[in-house]
Amino acid sequence: MAVFYITAGVNHLINPESYRKIIPPWIPLQENLIIISGIAEIFFALLLIFPLTRRVTAWCIIAFLIAVFPANIQMMLNYLRENNSGLWLSMLRLPLQIVLIWWAYSFTKPPA
């Protein structure tokens, strides 16, 4: 999971244009949010490595995934409006958030 979020975070920083397109227009400070979200993903990934911070970090990731869900909806709406052939992928991404939340939730349990 840490590798997944490091990769996603780095992608925010090196490819911000792809994220700029999917931020709902009503959200302010879009440029800043792209950078902040990328840094947050990298930070969360690093904190997942340590057992002491893993549980709290997993809860932070769950909150993060809920917070960025409007971008997934915006992506689907954009693709629908553009008649983009990737519409089905953007629709698949919506329930994928549930899977990612479940994955993060699996890290909230105390170690056995």
Q: What do the pLDDT scores average to?
A: 94
Number of helices: 6
For the terminal residues, how far apart are their CA atoms?
19 Å
**What profile does the largest beta sheet have?**
none
What's the Cα radius of gyration? 15 Å
What is the domain tally? 1
Walkthrough of the structure:
The protein has 112 residues and is mainly α. The protein is built from six helices and no strands. Helix 1 (2-14) packs antiparallel against helix 3 (30-48), helix 3 runs antiparallel to helix 4 and helix 5 (69-82) runs antiparallel to helix 6. The chain is globular and about 50 Å long. The model has no long low-confidence stretch (mean pLDDT 94).
Labels describing this entry:
single chain; 112 residues; mainly alpha; 78% helix
Task: Outline the fold blueprint.
Elements: H1 2-14, H2 16-20, H3 30-48, H4 51-67, H5 69-82, H6 87-105
Give a brief outline of the structure.
With 112 residues, the protein is mostly helical. Helices cover 78% and strands 0% of the residues.
